Amino acid sequence: MTAPAARRPAYAPMRPAVAQVLGEAADADPALVVLGADGYGLATQVRDRHPRRYIDVGIAEANLVGVASGLARSGRPVVVGTMAPFLVRRAAEQIRNDVCNPGLNVTFLGVGGGVSYGTLGPTHHVPEDLGFFSGLPNTRVFCPTDVVDAAWAVREALAWPGPAYVRLGAREDRVVHPADREFRADGLLLAEPGEALAVATGVGVPVALDAAGLLAGHGVRLGVLALPVVKPFPAERVRELAAGLRAVAVVEEHLDSTGITQHTARALVGRWQGAFLPHAVDDSYPPLGDRAELLDHFGITAEAVAACLLASLGRRSEAR
Question: The domain containing residue 280 runs over which residues?
Fold first, then answer.
């Protein structure tokens, strides 16, 4: 009798689900306005149903945020959606001074955070986006994993009366969550910890889950805490879950100096003893390659996480 084939993971783009959320939000709130910069993939439903409330400013990100600021000052909730690398780099001053400093109700949707644009190269890599927005006071920051928590994250961002940033995938992302998942702002414990815990966000979540599967074959139980919300960071929950464990790994598609690696280290320093194992973008510019190659380059893979944890726990590694 032949064993059943392993079920292949499903993949889906985030943009259509987000477009639906924005369409529903525009239906419910006649004041809401959506802005874009030479692209309307996030705003298809708003553009079709409420064309006077969708504005495309062209390839002019600083102007994009300036217009958003003016509309928000008039009392309108505003959504800004465009490519993450150009939003963060070309409009940094306007984001900081015109929106976040006065605490205006603007939700930023950044498509293609991290290294998800791959072979388009360093101009399109932005492994610092979460850190940039996290450094702005009173700003909420979200990093969903898949189409399901992307829709949840955008709804949560829209409900927040101040500035918020949601990192979105550029292409298709692996679906991890069931459609009826109930999310928590302080993270989802997708696997119970035994010897170790992985704190993960975005693409790091399926990597951590796969690492847990590899480690199970070695008799090691790896807990997985998925964080769709990066800021505010759930420091107390991380400390509670890490208590008594021998190792904590962090898995993220972001610079280790300003992402959840740094937040996790800060939460644990002086209060926990064990092996701290970051799997993130290090202090270097990503080389040229597709997304999978870049994640492998930085050790953001299930095999790398499992091998590192086995070594830290004193087990013989056969994960690679």
Answer: 188-312
Residue ending a domain, among 174, 197, 231, is 174
Rounded distance, CA 185 to CA 263, Å? Answer: 15
CATH of the domain at 170: 3.40.50.970
**Helix or strand run (H / E) with residue 167:** strand 164-168
Beta strands 172-174 and 140-142 are unpaired
Closest of 248, 210, 208, 254 to residue 231, by C-alpha: 254
- Across the beta sheet with 140-142, the strand order is 54-56, 33-36, 78-83, 106-111, 164-168, 140-142, 229-231
- 35 within domain boundaries: yes
Phi and psi angles of residue 119, each rounded to the nearest 5 degrees, phi first: -70, -5
DSSP code string of 172-202: EEE--S-TTPPP-TT-EEEE--SSEEEEE-T
Q: Give mean pLDDT, residues 209-214.
A: 98
Give tens-digit pLDDT for 139-198.
999 999 999 999 999 999 999 999 999 999 999 999 999 999 999 999 999 999 999 999
pLDDT per position as a tens digit, 90-134: 999 999 999 999 999 999 999 999 999 999 999 999 999 999 999
Instruction: Please give the share of the chain, as a percent, with pLDDT higher than 70.
Output: 96
Distance of CA 36 to CAs 41, 57, 141, 208, Å? 9, 6, 19, 34
CB 189 within 8 A of CB 224: yes
Q: 151 with 281, same domain? A: no
Q: Which amino acid is at 89?
A: R
Domain assignment present for 2: no
What is the Cα–Cα distance from 202 to 300, expressed in whole angstroms? 12
